[in-house]
Amino acid sequence: MDPKSYVLADGRNDDSDSDQEIEIALQSGLIDGKQFMIKAQKRELINKVEDIKQKLSQIKSNGAWIKTVAVTASKELIFDQDIDNDFEREALFYKQAQDGARQAIANLKQLNIPFARPADYFAEMVKSDSHMHRVRNVLLNKQKEKGRRDTVRRLRTEKKFATKVQKETESQQRE
């Protein structure tokens, strides 16, 4: 049983009692506070620059581009303008994405790797056909209901207009 969830018969939580007991024991000298203190361990900083550079060069030279598919944006697409200009920043993100896609396509063409899906390719669908038929039926029913409401609204306005025209013709005939 979790000691934090343990409740005494009189409704008090045992956790608060143990804290009080420890405080009393510390004050009376029955226990020393050394066992309750947590010492922060100081770790020695490790900065092996040569090893890091060696590993980086190993990563760069290890394997073909297709294993990582890493693309870096061109240097002219670095954002160095006003950081509060959200529109310019978003436009630059878009340009960086386009540039990256162009670089990746060029690399794939150079490696003779097809990157476009063939016209006769059929992918496995996430949703089943029966589910998609139900979704289609729901959408068609909504569209039919909207059309019916529009027709009823149009007929109502036509009827009002016809009544208005009829009253005007009757009033003109009386005069």
Structural summary, described in words:
The structure is a single chain. The protein folds into three domains: 34 residues; 60 residues; 45 residues. It is built from five helices and no strands. With 175 residues, the chain is an all-alpha fold. The N terminus is likely disordered. The protein is 59% helix and 0% strand.
Name its key features.
mainly alpha; 3 domains; 5 helices; 59% helix; 0% strand; nucleus
Describe the SSE topology.
Blueprint: H1 14-28, H2 49-61, H3 65-68, H4 86-110, H5 129-174
User: What number is the mean pLDDT?
Assistant: 81
Low-confidence stretches: 1-10
Task: Report on the biggest sheet.
Answer: none
Class based on secondary structure composition and strand pairing: mainly alpha
Strand elements, count: 0
Q: What portion of residues belong to β-strands?
A: under 5%
Number of spatially distinct domains: 3
User: What letter string, H or E per element, gives the SSE order?
Assistant: HHHHH
Overall geometric form: extended
Distance between the termini: 98 Å
Radius of gyration, rounded? 38 Å
How many DSSP helices? 5
Helix content: 55-70%
Brief account:
With 175 residues, this protein is mainly alpha-helical.
